[in-house]
Amino acid sequence: MRSVPLALLPVGAVLLAGTTALADNSSQGQSLLAGTTALADNSSQGQSMLNPAGPQAQHISDLWYIILVPALFVLVLVGGAIIYAAFKFKAKDVDAMPKQIGGNNALEFTWTLVPALILLGIFIISATQLPFLRHTPSEAADAMHIKVVGRQWVWNFKYAGLKNSYPGVLTIPADEVVNLDINSIDVIHSFSVPRLAGRLDAIPGKNNFMWLQAPAGIYYGQCTEFCGKAHATMTITVKALPRSDFDTWYSQQPKAPGGS
Ligand SMILES: [Cu+2]
Fold first, then answer.
1. 187 CA to middle of ligand 1, Å?
2. For residue 103, what pLDDT band results from cuts at 50, 70 and 90?
3. Ligand 1 center–CA 196 separation, angstroms
4. Which of 21, 83, 134, 193 counts the highest number of beta carbons within 10 A?
5. If you measure from the C-alpha of residue 150 to the centroid of ligand 1, how many angstroms do you get, rounded to a whole number?
6. CATH code for the domain defined by 142-249
7. Residues paired with 147 in a beta bridge
8. Helix, strand, coil percentages, rounded to 5, for the chain
């Protein structure tokens, strides 16, 4: 009898892996509630990855739903097996030595191979999305670059042609690809606007890169790498303006020397 709970140990590890995947993904969106609220009033509020805007976030959200299916399957299968075994094989006499039986090769082989195949499948599906997420679409090769600099405790946005940098608010043209070159001048921060894209670390001395494309609207994000006592105030507001409004805004900003 004792061999049954022991036999379930590796399967339990798979259950953990499955629930971790669930937890990781849902935390990206801060909360499901935030997403549904945003949908309900059709505003741009909320920071839910499950309420995606733009191609980057849409890809990530699709991937999340694809992985949710096998994760739920594993959860139900393994959770059900644990509950069944707990009742079915409950010890009636606590002092009695359970019957000792050896391993079952077929079972052990199966519960090693099946999770490995599931994980391999998830890996392959995820890896095929990486080139799209990593590289600016070729048709937008000349899209604008904006420098994103993390600092305790504010994000600064710097445009090549403008004199000032802009704390906390990233203004971009709507529906156009925008390249973000992400860096930090002190500690590691992490740039995250869940409705638009995945998160990316801002690391001192290293340039990280991401691209965005957002429909017109306002999107919120924040630093997602604990970076000191005012970490929580390190917020991001992305304003995606229709091209003509963006041009008006841009033309009103002080220009960098030699900028246009
Ligand atoms: Cu930070």
1. 8
2. confident
3. 19
4. 193
5. 6
6. 2.60.40.420
7. 158, 181
8. 45, 20, 35
| Per-residue model confidence as pLDDT tens digits over 120-159 | 999 999 999 888 888 888 888 889 999 999 999 999 999 9
**How is the beta sheet containing 217-222 ordered, strand by strand?**
169-173, 235-241, 217-222
CA of 125 to the centre of ligand 1 (A): 31
195 alpha carbon – ligand 1 mean position (Å): 19
* Ligand 1 (single-atom ion) residues, CB below 5 Å: 189, 223, 227, 234
Domains of the chain, residue spans: 55-92+106-134, 142-249
Closest CA to 253 of 172, 159, 180: 159
205 CA → ligand 1 middle, Å: 15
> What's the gap in Å between 64 CA and the centre of ligand 1?
26
